[in-house]
Amino acid sequence: MTDVAAPDSNAPAYSVSELAFALKRTLETSYSHVRLRGELSKVTHHGNGHVYLTIKDDKSAIDGVIWKGSVRGLGVRPEHGLEVIVTGKITTYPAGSRYQIVIESMEAAGVGALLAQLERLKAKLHGEGLFEASRKRPLPSMPAVVGVITSPTGAVIRDILHRIRERWPCHVLVWPVVVQGDQAAAQVAGAIRGFNAITPSGRVPRPDIIIVARGGGSVEDLWAFNDETLARTVAASDIPLISAVGHETDTTLIDFVSDRRAPTPTAAAEIATPVLGELRALVSDYDRRLNRCGSRVLEERRTRLVSAARALPRPADLLALAQQRFDIAAGRLDAALGRNTAVHAQDLLKVTARLSPEALERQRRTKADRLEEFGRRLQAGGGRMSDRGRDRLADLGQRLNACGTRAPDRAEAHARLPLLWTRLRLAGQRRLTRAEDQLAGFDKLRQSLNPERPLELGFALVRKADGSFARSVGDLTSGERVNLKFKSGDRDAVIDGEGVVHAAPPPVLKPARPKPTTPKPDQGDLF
């Protein structure tokens, strides 16, 4: 066997991990705070919130990482091709044997880089339709509450309040924010969301319009109003918003997404509010014009009414013809009533002429014969019914006796006999009652056909000397002797005068008598 040669040095051997972490500590100690300038590339926004990127120049490149907690505080958004200045510390990644910079802050390297980033962000938002005029809301013409988002200590808020007080005195709500620096964008966005969160019927009135205002400054000073989150918050506001950031030549990102851009904060106050004096003058002018128009309309209608009245006849002329027709009709009324009465009297005489005693006697005899026939039939029918009832009752008794001999319980059969007898007796009584009612009806009919019945009511029969009855006034002559038959007896009389036809009194309508009911055929017994 051959022995292995011993090492030339007694220095201890490092493990790979020991060497890697030793180098990591050395780099982090020596380069704990480094400012690095370069161009960003390979920018990757990880799903957990971290950002991985590469910073390069024309000769070298170094990897970098921005932890999630530091991403929110960056001055610019990391994008590919953006030239930036970053601050952080150098460290290593032991698992891959490479070094990298952990970025803590980032800012654009120069105005050109900021403007390039702004143009890229504008193109992105424009592609999403946030700059479209169709989505911008109309401003209220007469706001009751104006919300102002600005610094409470600058000259901007004093200019806005002074201008609103002169033009349109109304309630102004001021939401104080910082308008420059890293916290400005977040505070302005929070103020916009806060105004939109106020309920209309709450204790604090909800603004009808919002003004975001700031004075002039450099691109870096106004950069907070180019924030993407702030721009999206302005676009999502339910309350109409006016952006008044900087002077007339200054342009920020929220100017494009707001509902209206004002060149200055003072101009924003003028856009948001009308002039009270001008409105009063306009209302006064409208009132005068309304009065003039109303007067013209009334005068025109009055003229038309007068012209129409001239063409119409007078009311007296309109009533004269009707009055004359009424007088003529009233003059003819008495003669017409007399003629009408005479015509009805003649009709009555014609009807009463047919009511002779012989006709009444014939009807009476006919009804009496029918009544006697009904009586005979009723008596015969009642006898037959009684005979059939007795026969049926006897037959029923025999059947009951037979059933009683056959039934095992004769006591129960005998107990039913009183009930059946009661029902039979009641049925017979009902049949007799109906027969009596029919007989009474026939008797009333007979009495109504009696020719002497009118004598009981106070009438008299006028009999002439030859024994005939006088049916009308024309049958009697002056000096003729007649016989008057009353209910209590007869009296002789002599006709005096030439005879005048008097209007007969209207006939007295008597209630209709019930019609006699025809006896129903035998319906049998109840058993």
Notes on the structure:
The protein is of the alpha/beta class and 527 residues long. It has 13 helices and 13 strands. Among the domains are: 16-109, OB fold (Dihydrolipoamide Acetyltransferase, E2P); 119-133 and 141-274, Response regulator (Rossmann fold), CATH 3.40.50. The protein has helices at residues 16-30, 68-71, 111-127, 155-167, 184-197, 228-235, 254-257, 265-272, 276-311, 315-353, 357-406, 410-448, 453-456; strands at residues 34-45, 51-56, 61-66, 83-93, 98-108, 145-150, 171-176, 209-214, 241-245, 260-261, 461-464, 481-485, 490-494. The strands form three sheets. It has a five-stranded mixed β-barrel with strand order 1-2-3-5-4. Strands 7-6-8-9-10 form a five-stranded parallel β-sheet, with helices on both faces. A hairpin with a 5-residue loop joins strand 1 (34-45) and strand 2. Helix 5 packs parallel to helix 6 and helix 11 packs antiparallel against helix 12 (410-448). The protein is elongated and about 185 Å long.
